[in-house]
Design brief:
- The chain contains 8 helices and 7 strands.
- The chain has about 260 residues and is an alpha/beta fold.
- Strand 1, helix 1 and strand 2 form a beta-alpha-beta unit.
- The longest helix is centred in the middle third of the chain and has 29 residues.
């Protein structure tokens, strides 16, 4: 299927590895010019070169922290005329809410709620003017089914989801869509870090816990970044113009609900 986005420009945040990388790679395969950001310059440049070799696409890198005003300004300066915005940022650490300070909460909200909103604010009017825009917010399956040790993430990402639910309906008439892409357990550094945290609490190893968690999933495995990226690319496509304000859960069937 031709997704109809060849020649478009995408800003993909936190894309040096993991889910962001999967999205950037999938968009580049569709002929999209991608600007990718991450804090680590070395990993970012390596990913950019990998994407160029695999796809022949134009890839621009911006090293910096997207959760800061300086990082956002640098990314937007390198990507004028954003057609596709993929919001993504590393999640806050796991823990017990009794140990979290106000500063911890503010940091989580800044990274996982306010940063995406600021980037949407900076790009949405340009999308409306062009009568084409796609915003994909990478959030978490925890938006539908909270994860006890990830309370900071649960709160911040749910706040973003609530905000988007209203905005998406305001801009849909302009062929601008905003959707959430909710990962469950994917084989990423984030997942492995959480496994380490929980393994220590349970008195087991991360490898054993990962085996148990994968086996408990209806699919009997974790997701791949290629699967995630392909779904992101479809939501960014011309064929997805009638999908907006939705939260697409990718978790291998782990969420036990009917809806």
């Amino acid at each position: 299927m031709d997704l109809g986005i060849k020649g478009k420009t995408a800003l993909v945040c936190a894309a040096s590895k993991g889910l962001g990388k999967g999205c950037a790679l999938a968009l580049a395969r569709e002929g999209v010019n991608v600007v990718i950001t991450a804090r680590g310059k070395e990993a970012l440049e390596a990913t950019a070169e990998e994407i160029r070799k695999a796809t022949g696409a134009r890839v621009t890198t911006v090293a910096g922290d997207i959760t800061t005003e300086e990082g956002r300004k640098a990314a937007l300066a390198a990507c004028p005329g954003v057609d596709i915005l993929v919001n993504n940022a590393g999640g806050p650490p796991p823990g017990d809410f009794r140990n979290w300070s106000r500063e911890d909460w503010i940091k989580a909200v800044d990274a996982n709620m306010l940063t995406p909103i600021e980037l949407i604010k900076a790009t949405i009017d340009g999308m409306i003017a062009k009568k084409f825009g796609r915003v994909i917010n990478i959030t978490s399956g925890a938006v539908k089914m909270p994860i006890p040790e990830l309370g900071l993430s649960n709160g911040a990402r749910t706040g973003l989801t609530g905000f988007v639910a209203g905005l998406a309906r305001q801009v849909a008439q302009h062929n601008v869509t905003i959707n959430g892409l909710l990962p469950g357990p994917f084989d990423t550094d984030r997942l492995r870090g959480n496994m380490e945290f929980n393994a220590k609490k349970l008195g087991t190893t991360a490898a054993e816990l990962a085996k148990q968690r994968a086996g408990a999933n209806p699919s009997k495995r974790f997701g791949t970044i290629d699967e995630f990226g392909a779904t992101c690319a479809f939501l960014a496509s011309v064929h997805a113009g009638y999908i907006t304000g939705q939260n697409v859960l990718m978790d291998g069937g782990a969420f036990p609900g009917t809806f």
